[in-house]
Amino acid sequence: MRIDVITIFPEYLAPLELSLIGKARRDGLVDLHVHDLRDWTHDRHRTVDDSPLGGGAGMVMKPEPWAAAFHAVREAGRAQLGEDASPLVVFPNPAGAPFVQATAQEWSDRPWLVFACGRYEGIDERVYEHLADAGFEVALASLGDYVLNGGEVAVLAITEAVVRLVPGVVGNAESLVEESHSAGLLEYPLYTRPARWEDPAGTVREVPPILLSGDHGRIATWRHEQAVERTRQRRPDLLDPAGD
Ligand code: 6GU
């Protein structure tokens, strides 16, 4: 999978060198390219923003550097992946569609993602119009109902959620099946040794005996019941998405 990130803060993406994603990159499963949007400016101050037309607070990202960046990145990617290749362009944006596990699952099958990190109040609307006209596939994705200063932290989260689903990245593929959200439920409670533990307050805490029974059928049923109960208590919206 190829991933491009366009940002005015390339250093913000440094954590993608680490841990699971860093290993996936070294293993050749993910090819990540971080680009500085200012490389597509032409003035002395490498200007990427200007005041909003019509007035108002803050600054708006200018359209020219963005358009130049998208076309240059598409050319570079096509030189690598083939002239028919086409990226999904993702704008992290609090006004986007909720990014959920199913989104991560879909995007993990894609050969090529381009993340566009907006800052300030947002990007000139004509950039979105141009991308659609120029044949780019575009998605707006939100992490939740709160506001971040820019898309960079969202790209870190989205990239981690997507890349760990790319085949071969997580060593034990089974662990992806049972985890929270993979079946629309929160994960069941987990225990390890010792089966009988005296906590620091002197209370003896035992592991649910069924987990020591060796009866894998009954253990699976118990875990499913626990997952449903936990979801009902903590996230009833997951059990009743229509809210009725
Ligand atoms: Cl994806 N971007 C920004 N800037 N803020 C957010 C967000 C994304 N998701 C929630 N808040």
TrEMBL record:
InterPro entries recorded: Alpha/beta_knot_MTases, tRNA_m1G_MeTrfase_C_sf, tRNA_m1G_MeTrfase_TrmD, tRNA_m1G_MTases_N, tRNA_MeTrfase_TRMD/TRM10
GO aspect biological process, one term: tRNA N1-guanine methylation
Compartments in which it is found: Cytoplasm
Domain tRNA methyltransferase TRMD/TRM10-type residues, every copy: 1-239
UniProt GO cellular component terms: cytosol
Entry keywords, A to Z: Cytoplasm, Methyltransferase, S-adenosyl-L-methionine, Transferase, tRNA processing
Sequence positions that bind S-adenosyl-L-methionine: 118, 143-148
Molecular function via GO: tRNA (guanine(37)-N1)-methyltransferase activity
Superkingdom: Bacteria
Catalysed conversion reaction: guanosine(37) in tRNA + S-adenosyl-L-methionine = N(1)-methylguanosine(37) in tRNA + S-adenosyl-L-homocysteine + H(+)
EC number(s) reported in the record: 2.1.1.228
Main location: cytoplasm
Enzyme class: transferase
Sequence similarity: Belongs to the RNA methyltransferase TrmD family.
Stored HAMAP family: TrmD
Its job: Specifically methylates guanosine-37 in various tRNAs.
Oligomeric and partner information: Homodimer.
PANTHER family named among the record's database cross-references: TRNA (GUANINE-N(1)-)-METHYLTRANSFERASE (PTHR46417)
UniProt protein name: tRNA (guanine-N(1)-)-methyltransferase
Natural source organism: Brachybacterium aquaticum
Organism taxonomic ancestry: Bacteria, Bacillati, Actinomycetota, Actinomycetes, Micrococcales
